[in-house]
Amino acid sequence: LCEIQKKASMNKKQNIAAGHLFNSRLTSIISISLVIFLIGATTLMVLLTNELSVYIRENLTLSIVLKDDVKTADIQKLQKNLDACPYTNTTQYIDKGTAAKELAEELGQDPTEFLGYNPLLGSLEMTLKSDYANNDSIAIIEQSLQRLPEVKEIIYQKDLIDTINQNVRRISVVLLGLSALLILISYALISNTVRLSVYAKRFLIHTMKLVGATGAFIRKPFLMQGMVTGLISAILAMGMLSSILFLLRSELSELLSIESMNALLISFVVMIVSGITITTIATHLSVTRYLRLHVDDMYYI
Q: How far is the C-alpha of 88 from the C-alpha of 138, rounded, in Å?
């Protein structure tokens, strides 16, 4: 009977210890996954901001107003030549009739009715590739276009282009600064979580030292566990990020294109690499710290 009671008591203690260990690992995984989620969300935000800035700049319109006596064949030839230029994204020809209809829709009244003729001219609406969508590049492009015999004038919004480029630069700097700060905070949080996990086994580390185990031998299981913890946490964080994007798919429908899916995949890679790398480094440093401590000092930390 006493043997049975001893075995039952031992099993109970083992179950309690296993339960504490499971709860400790679960808490570590959840804590780390939340931090990695923030890293992934910030990475995705940086990538989507860059994609959005490219989209905005490539939709800025440069109006090439044509002379009234330009023939259709010359216009087609000019459009074909512009399409072949390295700075051109798209071109669209707007004839006089279409321009009058668009102006009538904006004003709510057809100007040709009280003027008796169409005062507007045909134009080529050109959008530029994002690398050329700045006032310095546009000024050079404008000079070359002004030399063409078919062109009367070039119209574009200089102030709007400057404002967009300035805001894009500011947002990029802020997001990069936020990302750097988040990486530091993430490392500190994950390091503390890992340190608490290793702290519970500090006497086990000391015991392994007493039986002659080398530092590399002692570190190996801890590092493996840290890598697995980082990987599981990253997978959970990826699931959280995917779930949030799925719930917001209707509001983000314009941003969730093929390019944004590539950005999401890049964010996933960053999350996995961050999770494994940070937990492994933090585990290595924590185990090394306890390897260097004297047994008496372990009671006071």
A: 11
